[in-house]
């Protein structure tokens, strides 16, 4: 059989989407897709597609359509310009359906109001006004829940609901929050977040909050605060999955040691001699997370890689470091830096490539969904 090229795949995908329930949204202008960096035969692509029909694929960390910018106030001029590029949840949900993604994190961004791009990344540009962080959280979670009430997604509130979610024909939506800034250091607010349907919280994002400094602004000796310790304990008690992405190594280790449940680094990679980036973690810390039963989300940021084949390399590197039982997919979709996996319609390509390169279907089932469901379930069991 002939090889399935990127042009053919995308043309076919667009035709299918145009006929679908969300077709009108698929024609909005979007950036050019990141390159594949490989070819698959028709049979190899079909194998990837068949795998996704038989096994749930879940994204541990994403911002589908950038809901976090909807109704946002007090944004910096640069963030306003970013927001002007559009909010497009239905388009991304269309991509999920077309690509065979079963469910995803839909992450609010707790510090979005006070962030601004810098020459080296993203950082806090001003302090929060009193009560602003909590009000922003409530706005964002209300907008996320509208996606469910409007019939765009199916709320996904426990791992055991996976089969029921898939039966709806709509992607499952796991409400999460990136950054615990909205708690303002109070573990008492976690119960209300849980009542809102939040399943996981990333303790730190790009702002130094009441829990810790972010890894991008801190040396590795930044510690977990007393308020952070109380929040970790209460998240364990309530059954909320702890996400340590963006947290510096010392604080992350303290949270890991304190937690009586496995934790997650939802989107990162390990540092290597060739690439030592502030958003990556050490191989030793990754192994400690794995030893505690946790999971690390393979992150397709364009830091050191330039195509989807590079993301596959990254996945195998993580598996070699911590084992197949401790790696999942964490794309940071619609919020990533120069992503090499930037469109859920490419999921069959990624799946086909991993299988082609020797990942067994049992292993792939763990990577794409099983590991995340296990760790989430162990948190919920609290």
From TrEMBL:
Gene Ontology biological process terms in this record: proteolysis
Q: Tell me which domain of life the UniProt entry assigns to the organism this sequence originates from.
A: Bacteria
Coiled-coil blocks: none
Please list every transmembrane segment annotated in the UniProt record, as residue ranges. Answer: none
What is the official name of this protein in its record? Peptidase M19
Name of a matching Pfam family: Peptidase_M19
Task: Show the InterPro entries listed in the entry.
Answer: Metal_Hydrolase, Pept_M19, TAT_signal
Any one GO molecular function term: metallodipeptidase activity
């Amino acid at each position: 059989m002939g090889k399935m090229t990127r042009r053919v795949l995308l043309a076919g995908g667009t035709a299918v989407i145009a006929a679908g329930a969300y077709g009108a949204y698929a024609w909005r202008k979007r950036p050019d897709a990141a390159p594949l960096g490989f070819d698959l035969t028709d049979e190899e692509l079909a194998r990837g597609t068949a795998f996704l029909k038989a096994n749930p694929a879940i994204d541990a960390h994403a911002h589908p359509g950038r809901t976090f910018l909807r109704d946002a106030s007090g944004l910096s001029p640069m963030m306003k310009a970013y927001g002007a590029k559009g909010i497009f949840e239905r388009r991304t949900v269309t991509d999920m359906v077309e690509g065979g993604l079963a469910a995803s994190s839909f992450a609010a961004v707790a510090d979005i109001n006070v962030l601004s791009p810098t020459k080296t990344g993203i950082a806090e540009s001003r302090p929060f006004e009193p009560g602003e962080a909590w009000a922003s959280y409530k706005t964002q979670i209300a907008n996320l829940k509208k996606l469910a009430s409007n019939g765009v997604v199916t709320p996904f509130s426990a791992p055991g609901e996976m089969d029921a979610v898939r039966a709806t024909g709509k992607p499952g939506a796991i409400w999460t929050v990136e950054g615990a800034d909205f708690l303002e250091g109070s573990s008492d607010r976690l119960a209300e977040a849980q009542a809102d349907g939040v399943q996981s919280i990333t303790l730190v994002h790009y702002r130094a909050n009441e829990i810790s400094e972010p890894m991008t602004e801190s040396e590795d000796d930044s510690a977990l605060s007393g308020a952070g310790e109380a929040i970790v304990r209460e998240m364990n008690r309530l059954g909320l999955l702890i996400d340590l992405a963006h947290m510096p190594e010392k604080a992350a280790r303290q949270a890991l040691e304190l937690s009586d449940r496995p934790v997650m680094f939802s989107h990162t990679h390990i540092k290597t001699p060739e690439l030592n980036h502030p958003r990556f973690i050490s191989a030793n810390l990754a192994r400690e997370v794995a030893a505690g039963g946790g999971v690390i989300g393979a992150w397709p940021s364009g830091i050191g890689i330039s195509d989807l084949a590079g993301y596959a390399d990254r996945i195998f590197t993580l598996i070699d470091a911590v084992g197949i039982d401790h790696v999942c997919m964490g794309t940071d979709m619609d919020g990533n830096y120069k992503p090499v996996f930037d469109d859920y319609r490419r999921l069959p390509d990624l799946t086909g490539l991993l299988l082609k390169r020797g990942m067994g279907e049992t292993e792939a089932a763990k990577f794409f969904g099983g590991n995340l469901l296990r760790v989430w379930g162990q948190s919920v069991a609290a």
